[in-house]
Amino acid sequence: MTPDSQRKIFLAALLLLLVNLLSVSARSKTPCEFPAIFNFGDSNSDTGGLSAAFGQAGPPHGESFFHGPAGRYCDGRLIIDFIAESLGLPYLSAFLDALGSNFTHGANFATAGSTIRPQNTTLQQSGFSPISLNVQFYQFNDFHRRSQIIRSQGGVFGGLMPEAEDFSRALYTFDIGQNDLTSGYFLNMTTDEVRAYVPELLDQFKTIIKGIYDQGGRSFWIHNTGPVGCLPYVMDRLLITAAQVDETGCATPFNDVAQYFNWKLKEAVFQLRKELPKAALTYVDIYTLKYDLISHARKHGFEHPLRACCGHGGKYNFNAHFGCGSKIKVKGKEIMIARSCKDPSVMINWDGVHYTQAANKWVFDRIVDGSYSDPVIPLTMACHRR
Ligand SMILES: *[C@@H]1O[C@H](CO)[C@@H](O)[C@H](O)[C@H]1NC(C)=O
Ligand SMILES: *[C@@H]1O[C@H](CO)[C@@H](O)[C@H](O)[C@H]1NC(C)=O
Ligand SMILES: *[C@@H]1O[C@H](CO)[C@@H](O)[C@H](O)[C@H]1NC(C)=O
To answer: Is residue 374 in a domain?
Structure first.
């Protein structure tokens, strides 16, 4: 080879490298434009699943935004609603909801009370939803396959289904695990016993993510679990000694277990990144934000961080026998004894178990830019691998 042709080859190689570098950086700066969201989870992101199957979460749920019950355990919108809004997508219809559902931009498989572990009990027996994560995955499989048959048939129903390519371009969101932790305690397990089954939960979680990946899912947005030890329904029901209460007033053992779960969840996400070369997995630290909100409520413009807005009496305005919206009959007349507080917009806790719309918005506003994510990547870029 002459020195001249060597130089030409060198220049061509250099050019190729530059073109590659440019296209990589251009690609990583392109917003994802998710055409759909498929959500899996529990009441933190249920937009009507449990209500469709087991009866509507009645008034005053939904009062602050939907002006009536809207399948959500909240006075208004959930974090998943703010995610949909910010991506320019409609609120997600629950897969289980036969009435007025429109799945063109995704579907919600979450139900209140869902666990990662397959449930063997009815809702009446345990209080946990039979629609555990594995069932949500079966439903997603069915949805994926049949929505495309229905779409190909056209007409009114075909127009309510997502496009085939939306399944690989969609954002897959997850918020589940809290009920797996509380269910053990409600069965009188010790913290060590609860910790012992956390790895099994995450094996199950990984299996589901891989199942979705096998069906073309690529972008995963995974919320960790919140400080369950700061929630009235946990503090009211479980035995806590004075030494177990932290400076915020939350129960340390339950928060420790939640953090242990989160640590294992993060580890699972790291493993999944290795095993699924085409997946972009974003781990979102909801715990830190919710704990910050509760422990510095006043600074953030909120009041009574440990009290439920909608409830009935006691230290936490929470009574397990008279949940939010409960009514009793007095002289033949029904009266609501667990009503909403005057101003839910300054409260963090809605009903002793769930957060208010105002708190959900506060959390959403801080996760959307990616500053609480691993990798640090905004919601709109969550289709890109680091
Ligand atoms: C379903 O939603 C899509 C997107 O928001 C909308 O264009 C369409 O009109 C809706 N279909 C019905 C029947 O409401
Ligand atoms: C349900 O039963 C299976 C099989 O016995 C078990 O592995 C699983 O942990 C059980 N689930 C719960 C929530 O107890
Ligand atoms: C847990 O312990 C409490 C108090 O000892 C008892 O009343 C309850 O029946 C126990 N629950 C289960 C599921 O064993």
So the answer is: yes
Question: How many domains is the chain partitioned into structurally?
Answer: 1
Q: State yes or no: is 292 an active-site residue.
A: no
Pocket perturbation via mutation, ligand 2, pick of 117, 178, 204 by most ligand atoms within 8 A of CB: 117
Token pair listed for 92: 């997600």
Distance, in Å, from the CA atom of 28 to the CA atom of 384, rounded to the nearest integer, reads 6
Peptide bond into 375 cis (omega under 30): yes
Per-residue pLDDT reduced to its tens digit, 8-37: 666 666 656 555 555 554 445 799 999 999
Q: Which atom in ligand 1 lies closest to the alpha carbon of residue 159?
A: 11
Asked if the structure places residue 18 within a domain, the reply is no
**pLDDT at position 26:** 44
Domain that holds residue 161: 33-381
Q: Which atom of ligand 3 is nearest to the CA of 186?
A: 13
Pocket of ligand 3 contains residue 188 by CB under 6 Å: yes
The rounded Å distance from CA 14 to ligand 1 centre is 49
The tens digit of pLDDT for each residue in 118-156 reads 998 999 999 999 999 999 999 999 999 999 999 999 999
Q: What's the CA gap between 95 and 136, in Å, rounded?
A: 9
CATH number of residue 235's parent domain? 3.40.50.1110
CA distance 250 to 229: 5
Ligand 3 binding pocket mutation candidate from 125, 188, 194 (most atoms within 8 A of CB): 188
| 371: annotated active-site residue | no
Distance in Å, CA 353 to ligand 1 centroid: 33
Q: Whose CA is nearest to atom 14 of ligand 3?
A: 187
pLDDT at 7 > cutoff 90: no
pTM: 0.92
Q: Is residue 220 within 8 Å of 209, Cβ to Cβ?
A: yes
The mean per-residue pLDDT over the stretch 196-223 comes to 98
**Local structure of residue 100 (DSSP, 8 states):** S
Q: Residue 35 carries which side chain, given as an amino acid letter?
A: P
- Ligand 1 neighbourhood includes 199 CB (under 6 angstroms): no
- β partners of residue 336: 327
Question: Is 171 a domain residue?
Answer: yes
Give the pLDDT of residue 386.
78
